[in-house]
Please model this.
Amino acid sequence: MNGMSKISLQDLIDEKAILTRKLGLLNLMITAYSEEHKVLVYDSPSQFGTVNPEIQEVPYDNFPYHKKWIEQLVFLLNQKDRFLSNQEFAEALLPYYREYNIDKLKRKVSVNISAAYINNVVGGLTKIKVTTLPKSTVWGYKKWLDPEGEVLEKHEPFGFSKSM
Model:
């Protein structure tokens, strides 16, 4: 047995136990993914097979949880039918992404919606500043603006007033 490592019966039994546990987790994941309203939450891929997954219920509605971030943001814009801030997007996403805190969600929103805006991924997507303060940008559609570029009343962001 030159250059070969020895494998004991115990090594094989231990490896079988690890693989059996992973197979059990895979079966659990397949079951969970087959039910649209459940998601599996792992902090990192390395957790797979080392701990039991946490299964969290997400709201059972038509939210496109398994689609791209920008598709989720467009869904929220259309659902709310008004301009939204990154904070409002993040708060609306929180029930679907309980593993994230609000700040991490705001960063995800900012990166994804800014990239979509810059690359003209979403037709008519626009941003407006509601105050002179930093981070006072809200997102919506050009069709929600009047000919002078003012926000139509029914699409105004939450807490918006013309005096801003």
